[in-house]
Model the fold of this input.
Amino acid sequence: MDKKDGLFTTVVGSWPLSNNHKNMLRVFTDLIQIGIDFPCYPQLLSMTHQFLSPLSEIIPQLKEVDEKFYLYEEFEVPKKPIALEYGKFIVNFFNEYPDLKAKIKGTKACLTGPFTLTFETILKNEIAKGLKPTIFEEPRAVMVDWIVNKFAEIIKQIAAAYSDMGIDIVSCDEPILGLLVGRKILFHSEDFIIDTINKTISGIKGLTSIHVCGRISPYLRDILLKTNVKILDHEFSTNEQNFKVFEKKHFQGTDKLLALGTVESKFVPIPDKNIDEYVEKVEFLKNYIKKGIEQYGRENLIIKPDCGFYPLKVFGENDGYEIAIKKVKNMVIALNELK
Done:
């Protein structure tokens, strides 16, 4: 990806459909036909379960109980990467449909980062001793440096394997960082967060990305800008305060890009509101993207939805998916009309 070309499109990853191969084919094909430049493999299950469930099957000290994850003792990092079937899906898809590859600029994979995975991992027994919960009821693995570091190694293995498959953008999704880093950092040092992110992405040969939801604090912004990550991916449509946090100077003269959240992806049904009323109009999106161009420069932007569309399952699969795909379609149309 060359900065001078600018204004590519991608998606964050998740969709409000049941987790099966047929639905993965449906979403991926739709994204290509709509005109997304860098389609991501469809993420149709919880972003934490996607990696913690297979980990619990090979790490004896990590147990899944009633859809929660408990770590009981120190553990060894598996020698082989897990959860590679999502990257293999992309490879197999284009082996079967080679004509569709010509319609895109590249592909993307989304991986859940070590801070978010350890945030969802509850500590038990001796490994939890001496830890006083701060923002939750029980000690979590995210509070312990060496555990976060081992999870970074696990995700590094997966990211490197996906890169070796030829996937162009590999994203480390860390929604929890917005909570951990405000005016100060919970549990860790600034250097530890930077080093952990850099370790996680160190095996990626293509473009690296990090997705953090919600309002981004200036402190978190500065930390992310100090990492080796190339694409900073955030919500702007539902968190317009982020327009005040990021400035053009943060990207000028660097190889970094800003992935601008352009359509809302999390909201609840409103009585008597029809599907199309949840979908941003093309003209509105054109003006919104123009705002991004004027503030950041087209050469520094990637256009994408705020976050994943998994929360739209509250509408039911049919309506939730229709809303999501119409939003993405209008986003692409708006950008194409601007071009």
Summary: The chain has a mean pLDDT of 95. The beta strands are 8-9, 62-65, 68-71, 108-112, 121-123, 169-173, 207-212, 231-234, 257-261, 301-304. The longest helix spans residues 317-338. The chain has twelve helices and ten strands.
